[in-house]
Automatic annotation (TrEMBL):
Domain PAC: start-end pairs: 199-250
Domain CBS stretches: 15-73, 79-134
Domain (PAS): residue spans on this chain: 142-180
Keyword terms: ATP-binding, CBS domain, Nucleotide-binding, Transcription, Transcription regulation
PROSITE patterns according to UniProt: CBS (PS51371), PAC (PS50113), PAS (PS50112), SIGMA54_INTERACT_2 (PS00676), SIGMA54_INTERACT_4 (PS50045)
Descriptive protein name: Sigma-54 dependent transcriptional regulator PrdR
Alphabetized InterPro entries for the sequence: AAA+_ATPase, AAA_lid_NorR, CBS_dom, CBS_dom_sf, Homeodomain-like_sf, HTH_Fis, P-loop_NTPase, PAS
Every Sigma-54 factor interaction domain range: 275-504
CDD domains noted in UniProt: AAA (cd00009), CBS_pair_SF (cd02205), PAS (cd00130)
Lineage: Bacteria, Bacillati, Bacillota, Clostridia, Eubacteriales
ATP-binding recorded as keyword: yes
Pfam family, one: HTH_8
Provenance organism: Clostridium tanneri
């Protein structure tokens, strides 16, 4: 038998089939003999078709004796013919109510017009109430094993049931709270509110005691006369969950703050105002980039390595107003076999070694933003075809999938190669070139921007000193002329690396000519001019020493012992000079 069967008993579960059925011709004496023999208080009188006609009980016999009725008379004549019957599928509780309302002690159970059993007061007492007791024990066992705290209060707010989970949750035993007023333990108990309103209260976050948060529901209980007789409350401890939610919310706000700060930092580093330049070519490039930034037009940035192509790309993105990500990918650093999966992503099982659940590609990640394709000239021809199709249709397909994914991604490409020469060599698609180079920005080399070297050097001095935590108090003006006289084949990137070296190797926060690497001093076309214009005797002597030691070391092929003999100094002195001048 299932729990649902136990909870709702039917008449068939508690009726007895041990009843006496007699025909209409049965005499009172014969009916009485059967009742005595079988220890029954009644006989059921049926006709030839088995239909119930009446019921005769021991109480009826007592009345007949007092009236002097002959016991040989048919029993049917003195039976109760207004018999109340019941169906076997009726709820046992309803059967009990019928017997109480009609003030009767027995109910014949009828099915298809025939009697199949009888329900008596003894059945209810011995069977029904016993089963009710079993049910109560079952329900108590179920309630005690629920994770939720369960409390039942009567109409006066007195606790009538308090399960084990309630004991654990509130550290109050059932013995201490049963038959006590709930408000004495929990002044703001919602059970009292439920009694007052007579309405359900569902899933309210409540704090019955300080520091204990619960998800609480209250259900009012009514009797058959619609009178409120009790309320049942269920409490689920959500203290940890709520605290975790608050922590997650705090962390989410931190992430939003950091994201906002990061974007501001990126914007401050890569907006057009941060691009240093007095040179006409760089000013023209900035003007074109500013004008094209708010549009969705594809941009091709060309120039030597280290001229600041990615800085321009980020500045265009920041000025575009696009809310998506800026995603950079170096086409020369990706193996041909991985190009498609990197750009378009893939689904689970697309190839051996694919990550379970798949992976989104750079196009999806940059959706609503900008995808920067650096070194576009190194992209394989077969990928160029697919990139062209995306630019035309605005749709991508993950590797291993036929599902189209729309993408609103702005393309900014860059290269240090001559794409037109690559087109002539059939190494780059002409149609892709014109699709990418709707607007083309050419960045000049640093050697053509000598007027910008000082401003760039100061910018990097400030950035690196803050980044490394090294305060620079002094910078010799001569360094700018020397740096401006260098050819800078590595362009701005090389200049920044040199400035970083000068900062981290500086002494007492001073940047002097000695801070400049030797290879720059040797190849700067203003070095001799700087030297001959100075009258610092100590500096002149140091320069002569450095030049002489360098020449001798070259002459003896780096042999320090021979160099010391040629220079007529001790070997230890030579080592000191070599270290001092970083030769």
């Amino acid at each position: 038998m299932s729990i649902s069967d136990l909870i709702v008993y039917k008449v068939r579960d508690i009726m007895t089939k041990n009843f006496i059925e007699v025909p209409v011709s049965e005499s009172i004496k014969d009916a009485l003999d059967k009742m005595i023999e079988l220890y029954r208080d009644e006989v059921l009188i049926t006709n030839a078709r088995g239909n119930l006609i009446g019921i005769f009980t021991m109480k009826d016999i007592a009345k007949l004796k007092n009236e002097g009725i002959c016991f040989s008379s048919p029993v049917v004549e003195f039976s109760n013919k207004n018999v109340v019957t019941i169906d076997c599928n009726t709820c046992a509780r309803d059967a009990r109510d019928i017997m109480i309302d009609n003030n009767i002690g027995r109910l014949p159970v009828v099915e298809n017009g025939r009697v199949i059993g009888i329900l008596t007061s003894e059945n209810l007492r011995d069977t029904f109430y016993l089963k009710m007791d079993e049910l109560f024990n079952l329900q108590t066992n179920v309630f005690d094993n629920l994770h939720e705290a369960v409390c039942i209060c009567d109409e006066n707010g007195l606790v009538k049931y308090w399960n084990r989970s309630a004991e654990k949750l509130y550290n109050v035993t059932a013995n201490n709270i049963i038959d006590k007023f709930i408000g004495d333990f929990f002044p703001n108990a919602l059970s009292l509110e439920g009694l007052k309103l007579g309405k359900r209260i569902e899933n309210v976050i409540h704090e019955p005691v300080k520091g204990k948060l619960v998800a609480l529901s209250v259900v009012p209980l009514y009797n058959s006369r619609n009178n409120l007789i009790a309320v049942v409350s269920t409490d689920r401890d959500v203290t940890e969950a709520v605290n975790l939610t608050k922590q997650l919310e705090d962390e989410r706000k931190k992430v939003e703050f950091l994201e906002h700060a990061y974007k501001n930092e990126i914007a401050s580093k890569y907006n057009f105002s941060s691009i240093i330049g007095k040179n006409k070519k760089i000013i023209d490039a900035i003007a074109i980039a500013q004008k094209v930034a708010p549009t969705s037009t594809s941009v091709l940035i060309t120039g030597k390595s280290g001229t600041g192509k990615e800085v321009f790309a980020k500045a265009i993105h920041e000025a575009s107003g696009r809310t998506g990500n800026f995603v950079a990918i170096n086409c020369s650093a990706i193996p041909d076999s991985l190009f498609e999966s990197e750009l378009f992503g893939y689904v689970e099982g697309a190839f051996t070694g694919a990550i379970k659940k798949g992976k989104i590609g750079k196009f999806e990640f940059a959706n609503g933003g900008t995808l920067f394709l650096d070194e576009i000239g190194d992209m394989p021809l077969e990928m160029q075809v697919k990139i062209l199709r995306v630019l035309q249709d605005g749709v991508i397909y993950r590797l291993g999938s036929e599902k189209a994914i729309s993408t609103d991604t702005r393309i900014v490409a860059a290269t240090n190669k001559d794409l037109k020469r690559l087109i002539a060599e059939d190494k780059f698609r002409e149609d892709l070139f014109y699709r990418l180079a709707v607007v083309q920005i050419q960045l000049p080399s640093l050697k053509d921007r000598k007027e910008d070297v000082k401003d760039l050097a100061n910018l990097f001095l400030d950035q690196v000193s803050k980044q490394e935590g090294i305060k620079i108090n002094y910078a010799d003006d001569r360094i700018y002329r020397i740096l401006a006289g260098y050819k800078w084949e590595g362009n701005i990137r090389e200049l920044k690396n040199v400035i970083q070296r000068m900062v981290v190797l500086s002494n007492d926060g001073r940047i002097t000519v000695d801070s400049i690497p030797e290879y720059i001093l040797e190849n700067s076309n203003v070095e001799e001019e700087v030297k001959t214009n100075e009258y610092d005797l100590e500096k002149i002597i140091e320069d002569i020493e450095k030049k002489t030691i360098r020449e001798v070391m070259s002459m003896v092929n780096g042999n320090k012992q021979q160099a010391a003999k040629v220079l007529n100094v001790k070997r230890s002195t030579l080592y000191y000079k070599l270290n001092k001048y970083e030769i």
